[in-house]
Amino acid sequence: MPNNLVIVESPAKAKTIKQYLGKSYSVIASMGHVRDLPKSQMGIDLKNRFEPKYITIRGKGDLIAKLKKAAKDAKKIYLATDPDREGEAISWHLAALLGIKDGEKCRITFNEITKNAVQNAIKEPREIDKDLVDAQQARRVLDRIVGYTISPILWKKVKKGLSAGRVQSVATRLVCDRENEIDNFIPEEYWNIDAVLNYEKTGEEFIASFYGKGSKKYKVTTEAAAKKIAADVKNEKFVVTEVKQGEKTRKPSPPFTTSTLQQEASRKLGFTVKRTMSAAQQLYEGVEIPGRGTVGLITYMRTDSLRISNEALLAVRELIGSKYGASYLPKSAQIYKTKKNSQDAHEAVRPTYPDICPLDVKGVLSGDLYKLYKLIWDRFVACQMTAAVYDTRSIDIKAGEYLFKATGSKIKFKGFTALYIEGRDDEGEEKDMLIPLLSKGDEPILKSINPQQYFTQPPMRYTEATLVKALEEKGIGRPSTYAPTITTITARGYVGREKKQLYPTELGKVVTDIMIQYFNDIVGIEFTADMEKDLDSVEGGEIDWIKVIEEFYGPFESELKKAEDEIAKIKIEDEVSDEICDKCGRNMVYKMGRFGKFLACPGFPECRNAKPIVTETGANCPKCGAKILEKKSKKGKLYYGCEKNPKCDFMSWDAPVPDRKCPDCGGILLKKTGRSKKIYCMNEECGYEEK
Fold it and tell me: Which are the catalytic amino acids?
């Protein structure tokens, strides 16, 4: 009969931990929080030091009864919830429900769910950290006050079902501000002038770009100036005046934090932040591995620390030496510095057992889990490998009074790039090209001179990856808040997604304008970042959490009254489409749903007709000849299917290429995007493809 009780949040975590403890331990999952603020009311006593009113969560009665019985029978209770503010708060609520006394050493934490980590934690239980609990409680109370006071004003003045939130409102503002920058951007003209030159000694051609007059850099801003330079150099000799050869190194990127993991999974895997965190949670809590049982494959995934344990460094260095060889192993381990305001309680996100290579578990993990595990494993191993080495060459070439420059580089030693290269937010790819080795005084021959007009571009819209990066850089939110924040602003219809880019909807703009006018602090970037610092100070035991709320609530209460009195009723008109409702004849309008825009009849509730927005691809179905349409799955993922579905079952995750047939067999051509970009024939027996 077990006489020790361990409580965790999830069944998967319970299963993993159970196998590391003996028969004298019972492990039960609380299924997340057991107590929370009520949904039907604010649940904060604004006149009595902001006292929260906690209630047991509806539907958890049987589970709580089971926990109480197990606790009553147990000699010792261990609360093993996640090692962060939220996990500490869950343990605090459990302690209150189970009658665990203040000061009792019942709390255990571990950064990774491994046998050593779990058994060591059991040996050293500690008291519940009330400062951590207070920091979570302060955030919860702040968010509840903001949400439950501003949201009713938005319902009344704008539209039912709207909500406001501390971090979500700032995130929406960032997207709106970026859109305003794009709308107000005035492009400036500039010209690049490239000379295609031939080095006669070797027959190699290369490109030298116009730099300036004499030795001074000169920006070409008009067509007349560009054409004059092109005309002037056509009859000039191109003479090499300086040759520089060198070597540069490129160091690996540090291991993942929550933010960088979300960014890289978006760039390389096309994952939303929510999808990334869902897969990471499963990898952390444990996956069944044949021969090893249930294994927690990664460390805790909510962290902004770059710290790596000595044990993990020894393991990964041994792996690199045996798998890649001595030339890929630095003399000493790479130590990465964590940012100033980061929480260093956890390690970086890394594999718990570096010796479990991605290929070892490919057949065991589902698609998302395997892709994310491989990304984490590759990044971690690469961060401890030697730098990549490049040969570089730079040449100055005079043509009359004008100066042209040619530069290039070529990889000399791959180093960490043999395993992993960090993704980029732009679409460009790094070029690996070394220009010919010319000598001072050489005279390459001009083959052509090409002036090309360009215009400066507005800033890019945010993607989920770049929005997470912006939130982190500006100190808004914490690792645990990025995913729910972005999920909320898209689900509420404040922000839409076009391919990977985020844009503000009309609703998002209206709500943001109201928030800026009446609740400027709430959507103020500096104010929100300062509030995060205050919450960190609560966690550090430096400030009382009630004082933080008091300082916030005084000015906020005045803003609230002013907004209630002054905001006029705002009606947001739906955008009208050309699509005619086939039930009542009205022009249908665009509405925002859970998975994006759809068409709905404006005659609701008399007419309830609604349909998806149809986007034609320009290609025809190979099975029945009907149109192939762009569609979305129930989870919002883009795919391509026949318009006659369900009668015709044709579908593809890759886009059909319009107005082209396979040159070999006449079949449908599909276009694969991402890292392995290509156009290929969907007929597997044909095998035609082009890069």
Answer: 300
- Residue 635 has φ and ψ, to the nearest 5°, of -90, 5
Could you tell me the CA-to-CA distances from 632 to 462, 588, 617 in Å, in that order?
Answer: 22, 20, 14
| C-alpha span between 607 and 598 (Å, rounded) | 15
- What backbone torsions phi and psi does residue 417 show, to the nearest 5 degrees? -70, -15
Q: What DSSP letter does each residue of 431-488 carry, written as one string?
A: --BPPP---TT--PEEEEEEEEEEE--PPPPPBHHHHHHHHHHTT-S-TTTHHHHHHH
Phi, psi of 463, rounded to the nearest 5 degrees: -105, 175
Q: Please confirm whether the linkage preceding 479 is cis (ω < 30° from 0).
A: no
Count of CB atoms situated within 10 Å of the CB of 633: 12
Residues 169 and 477 sit within 8 Å (Cβ to Cβ): no
Strands (E) in 117-235, as ranges, are 189-199, 204-213, 216-217
Residues 108 and 127: their CA atoms lie apart, in Å, by 9
Instruction: Let me know: does 187 contact 456? Beta carbons within 8 Å.
Output: yes
DSSP 3-state helix, strand, coil percentages of the chain (rounded to 5)? 35, 25, 40
Q: What is the distance between the alpha carbons of residues 489 and 429, in angstroms, rounded to a whole number?
A: 32
pLDDT digits (tens, 9 = 90+) for 78-94: 999 999 999 999 999 99
β-strands 4-8, 76-79 pairing: parallel
Spell out the SS3 assignment of 219-269. Answer: CECCHHHHHHHHHHHHCCCEEEEEEEEEEEEECCCCCECHHHHHHHHHHHH
Q: What is the pLDDT of residues 228-256, one digit of tens each?
A: 999 999 989 999 999 999 999 999 999 99
Looking at residue 653, the DSSP 8-state letter turns out to be: S
What gap in Å lies between CA 232 and CA 671, rounded to an integer? 45
The letter for the amino acid at 374 is: K
CB within 8 Å of 597: residues ≥ 6 apart:
496, 590, 591, 613
What pairs with residue 388 in β-bridges? 250
